[in-house]
Amino acid sequence: MTITIIIIVCLLLLLGYLFDLTSAKTRIPSVILLLVVGWASRQASAFFNFPILDLQQLLPILGTVGLILIVLEGALELEMDKSKLSLIKKSFIGALASMLSIAFIITIAFRYFADVSIPESLVNAIPLCIISSSVAISSAKNLTGTNKEFVIYESSLSDILGVLFFNFIVLNSTITLQSFGHFGLQVLIISLVSFAATILLSLLLSKIDHPIKHAPIIILIILIYAVSEIYHLPALIFILFFGLFLGNIDELKQFKWIKKLNPYEFNKEVKKFREIVTEGAFLIRTFFFTLFGYSFHTSEIIETETLGLAIIIFFAIFLVRAIILKLSRLPVFPLLFIAPRGLITILLFFAIPASQRIPVVNKSLVIQVIVLTALFMMLGLMVTGAGEKKSEPPKILKSNDEALLSDMPLSDEG
Prior knowledge:
Blueprint: H1 2-26, H2 30-47, H3 58-77, H4 85-114, H5 118-125, H6 133-139, H7 145-171, H8 177-207, H9 214-230, H10 236-247, H11 256-259, H12 263-294, H13 298-301, H14 304-327, H15 332-335, H16 343-351, H17 363-390, H18 400-407
């Protein structure tokens, strides 16, 4: 039995890798295929009378670790300079305005369909308002530079703002001036923690002289995130801050204390660290979405009682997105299609307190919204994919090492 499980896990991971390799040509997000593989595995188990395993308790753990690694992976890829400020501003406004607008629409819909209070409706609506960075970032690999950067910024900020908004509403049954003061204090504390932890982890990455150095740092990142969550601090701010710092060390070389890190050697370590984070994110993402697909019951996907509401939410998401993209003077296509729900939606759905759950927001509704938004993204990228690739001329980019070498003064012998 043990050997059989090992074989199955290896085959699933290799399938996930194959999906990742072929997604650039097929335009089918690997997440869709992983969900299908997970669902098909359950059907095959039932058909051959294999025991159906209850793995749902693993989902929050895998999802949390996956979220950390995926946001960190995205942040490591982003370049921060003055030319990016306008894009960051648009990403922030777009993520916030989209989340609040959709939350308002869905809250009204829940109020009408379920006849529950506004606070209860809002708590249940927020998970459906957040763009999943785990799906969006992996699906944006084929986009051109500016569009890809916008998706990474927007989806990462959507995750952070969504978790902040969710925790704020859950912890404050009645919203007062004191509630906002407490919220501001939390943001201030996590900002200080982020700054101190980033310096400490960067020094460890630079100074540890041991073959095993990246794994302990990743473990410390997860530990800091978990401890921050216990105290209801917006821990994703730390992940984003740390990733942006590591990925943009060259922009900070004018500061004296940065020179202590030996930027040239430090960039080599960051490159290795990024590779490990990318591969770790792939493994966790593959496990998570395959297990989530495995947890599907066919009846949950085609549940007619929630399908109408799921379609209303689907149209609300993309109508609001089209308006915001237009107002922000950003290209509506292909960005319109990239607003999937996924990992963060599932995590927050599981985190809704039992006392605040409403019957209409169940696993069927969550699955249907995730599937509808993912399919829409897949079809949209298929239709607009060719034009997207041709719209920007090819650029010759320097690697990190080449960029660093070009900045180094030549010796007399050179």
